[in-house]
Amino acid sequence: MIPNLYRVAVVLLAGFVAVTGGLVYWQVVRVNSLANNPANPRLIDAAKSANRGSILDRNGTVLAESREQPDGTRRRVYSIPSLAQTIGYVSTRYGITGIEQTFNDYLSGVRAANPLQTVRNDLFHGSPAGDDLTLTIDAKLQQTASAALGDRRGAVVALDPGTGAILAMVSAPGYDPTKIDELGDKLLVDTAGPLLNRATQGLYPPGSTYKTVTATAALDSGVVKPADRFRCVNGVVISGVVIKCTNAPEGQTDWDFLHAYAYSINATFAQVAAEKLGSDRFLAYSRRFGMDEPLAFDIDTATSRTSHAGGSLDPVSLANSGFGQGQLQTTPLFMALVAATVANRGVEPQPYLVQDARDAGGSIVMQHAPAARGRVMSEAAAAEMNSFMVTAVNEGFGSAAGLLGQNIAGKSGTAETGSSDPADSWFIGFAPAGSPTIAIAVIVENGGPGSTVAGPIAGQIFRAYAAR
């Protein structure tokens, strides 16, 4: 009899241990992954809270709020559609995305609720008061950037190079997140990809804007000086492959490194990458900027890549990467950070979108502290790159882009996409060149020359920012 009782006790104990282990796993180990899963029904229920907090821009403009409807229900309403992919949406059918998802604990009031209050809310179907979020976005600049890009597919990112605060983030085409329940099915199958945040998740060859990274590596490592001269007549040969003297001024066959950047001469940057830098140094500087690693940010981002497989680059791949082609894939946010790093004297800022959270009484319950991702280049190299980018505007493409006379530093790019479609149009830059307060990246998919398409878009944003 006793052995039987002993066996029963062992079985019960084993069962107790298994149940306890399961509870610990799901409620402790996996709690964060479950809580942040956009398909989690409890997350969606919390997101529908009647007391969900509002989302405001840096100046107090309401960007998202919950409004009572005629039938007594409440609906999330968004005031600026061009922020759809950034702020995200709250939907009983399609879940929760963007800032709404990342900061749901604050917006829904879950953060402030104690365990007893949570049980009481569950029993009596109550809902805690959510916190309001203040973003770094400037609503007026956001609308200017959206209007400048228009109905063209692409993205705009503008940020404060000193702090990393995002001032504007546009992805087009967009959609109205207020109508996500009605339009969701169509948006999911739309081949234009309106749900994709091109600013943070779109991956594109950067074209000549990446010459900024190549030039940084060459100047900071000391393998090339601004006055070093290069020559190209019919092209340069790298491992048997001829790279043409594209963009060289008519009748000119030699130039210094400064003007190779200003004129955007592919052959020179192929030589610098393959013959001066080498694969290891080129990749090391690319990764200093953040290539090949996830970028910490308030919403999901894609990882910018130096190649599909990773690892060293052969001489031809390296040469092509040197002028922004090869297998390089970057997000507009990444390229905005490249410009911001030069503007910030060689230190790359950590980008962020949420400035603070405030409870119903107006008290700050969370506040972002600006930080740096790290130093990428010396101050001396950053000053040289600043001069390179000013010269690129004043003596290179600035006239075509309408940027002359505005104290702007920048670089345009025309990136081949590997298809028969027109090239992607790029611009990165910052202003004022002497004491920068805004850095920008613009891409227009299949837009053609960067100087005549992306550059003028950036010009409109720079002018609106200066006039604010």
Task: Describe what you observe in this structure.
By secondary structure, this protein is an alpha+beta fold. 40% of the residues lie in helices and 18% in strands. The protein is built from 17 helices and 19 strands. It has a 6-stranded mixed sheet, with no helix packed on it. Strands 8-7-19-18-17 form a 5-stranded antiparallel sheet. A hairpin with a 3-residue loop joins strand 4 and strand 5. It is elongated, with a radius of gyration of 26 Å. It starts with a helix and ends with a helix. About 4% of the residues have low confidence.
Label this structure with key terms:
468 residues; alpha+beta; six-stranded mixed beta sheet; 18% strand
